[in-house]
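Item description
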Amino acid sequence: MSTPSQGGKESAPTPEELREQVEHTRDELGQTVEALAAKADVKAQAAEKAAEMKEQAAEKAAEMKEQAAEKAAEIKEHAAEKATVVTAALREKAGQAAQLVKDKTPDPVLDKAAHAAAHVRDTATRAGHLAAEKAPDPVREKAESAATMAKANRTPLLAAAAAFIVFLLLRRSRRCR
């Protein structure tokens, strides 16, 4: 490892050049030893591999979580659509059943039911006035708020009452058969 000198003659390396060559060789040897030590260090390799696997698992978990959230949103949307369809079908069937009951019920029974309903309304009104006169203020306030809520939700309450009446009439007609 000599360097060419002037005139094409080779000369012996100087002590400084030898020191540089030795230092360079030591650096290369140190790097080689470090690389071999790293390959031989099973514990460090296992820790590195575990860190990689942990990172991959975290990425996969995040991906699966996102997919699950998307699927849950799809299912929720589908269930809401189904509920809307079923609700509409139930309303239609209840309306048809109520009309069928009304059509099949004789007029005297309808008149009697109307009179009974009017009588019940009158009795309930009198009972309400009597209860309002004798009830303490907090009870009256609660009753007023309940009445307000019932008035605000009149349609669902009427639909439920109609469905209940249809159920009772159908049950009664089946018993008579």
Observations:
- The chain has a mean pLDDT of 84.
